[in-house]
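dude i think i finally got it to work??
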Amino acid sequence: MSQTTSQKTATIADGARAAGVAKSTASRLLSPCPSTKGLQTLWKLFPAPFHLLRANRFKLMKHTFPFTPQRATTRLSGFTLIELLVVIAIIAIPAAILFPVFGRARENARRSSCQSNLKQIGLGFAQYAQDYDERFPMNRVVGATSTPYGWADSIQPYLKSYQIFQCPSEPNGPGTNPNGDNYTDYWYNVAMARANGGAYAGGANPQNMLGVKDSQLDYPSLTVVTGDFRQEVTSPLGFSYLTVFGGTGQGLANDSAIAWNRHLEGINLGFADGHVKWFKGNATGNVSPKVYKSHHPFQKNASVPGWNVEGSGSNPTLHVSDSITVQPNY
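look at this
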């Protein structure tokens, strides 16, 4: 009798220990799950099946309860080659469209900066004229051993900056020697320094080196005074007396020293009245589609040799005045 009672007591103790193990295992398994409270309630009601957790805990949960535990790990996968190529294409196509736009925007900014430089140079000419009997500067002071050497050096006291003479789209660095290279990236219309017409003959005929007066200009808003110069990277120029005249004879200007296509296939030009404007160039050559040479008259005049041509009219020109009937010879 006592033996039977002892065996029952041992069986009950073993069952209690098994239940304790099952309880500990179930608590460890189910505690991370979001629905822990509900599972613990089930465990208290039905403790017996949990001894099977030692054998296969996930199998037990799958068959005992109608859900899958959320603790299961998720496998991470990388991009496939096709997905990677699609992403690259999505990035590359807008980039190919936008990069030229960004480049054009940068050149637009440089063009605006260049126009600002020419505007300041135009103001320098106006201030110089106010101080020198309403005359524009000579293009060059012949035989000078000190400043001023040329037109750019003559207006430097009014500008007080060497950087104004530097176009941001021109690759050569600035120079501070007025008699050396890269002092200026802009030219001066030499017709503005031939008030009496005729040839440039240096000291022998100094009367031919005389700046025109404001009153001599027939159309100040049409006469070009300055603009972009085409520097050569290998042999740059740009001294302070740099000038152009548009080419010999009549017709559209074809001077190769003029940078017709520097800014977005065009050129910035400064006029005698002080305004600055951009004009379309010619991508296939040095001939301007709009600007006329300094020898080309505003109006046709058969009485003047070489002027029996259709006038430039309202187009921009390097010509100064039809009243100067002696054509300048450069």
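The chain has two domains: 15-76, 96-280.
im so relieved honestly
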